[in-house]
Amino acid sequence: MSDLVKFVQDEFVTRKDFPEFSAGDTITVYYEIKEGSKTRTQFFKGVVLQRKGSGSSETFTIRKMSGTIGVERIFPVNLPALQKVEVNKRGKVRRARIYYFRGLTGKKARIKEVRR
């Protein structure tokens, strides 16, 4: 049964073409916000902590610092409000999920950049 559900999701859910990114990369996500009858585009720039799931139910988590407070946001890949994703920097990390990044502050919270 789960194979059938996965097949239907993969066939009929439209996939958006975003650049390849993984944990440790710094990305900017542009998404649409509806306020009453108006819509506007807002962006969220931060470090990718993880990518989770597969197919149409895939999500990714981004963390940014807003002043001295860390803010995390989870985006589904197939969110209709997502407009585009830009990869600003490629980070060199050894793990697929960098939860340890939450506890780092100051200079320790830097990720080495990969030159490609």
Automatic annotation (TrEMBL):
The keyword Electron transport appears for this protein: no
Gene3D superfamilies for the chain: 2.30.30.790
Gene Ontology, cellular component aspect: ribosome
Source taxon at top rank: Bacteria
Coiled-coil stretches: none
Keywords carried by this UniProt record: Ribonucleoprotein, Ribosomal protein
InterPro entries for this protein: Ribosomal_bL19, Ribosomal_bL19_sf, Translation_prot_SH3-like_sf
Signal peptide extent: none
Pfam families associated with the record: Ribosomal_L19
Cited function: This protein is located at the 30S-50S ribosomal subunit interface and may play a role in the structure and function of the aminoacyl-tRNA binding site.
Record-stated family: Belongs to the bacterial ribosomal protein bL19 family.
Protein name, per record: Large ribosomal subunit protein bL19
Taxonomy of the source species: Bacteria, Pseudomonadati, Bacteroidota, Flavobacteriia, Flavobacteriales
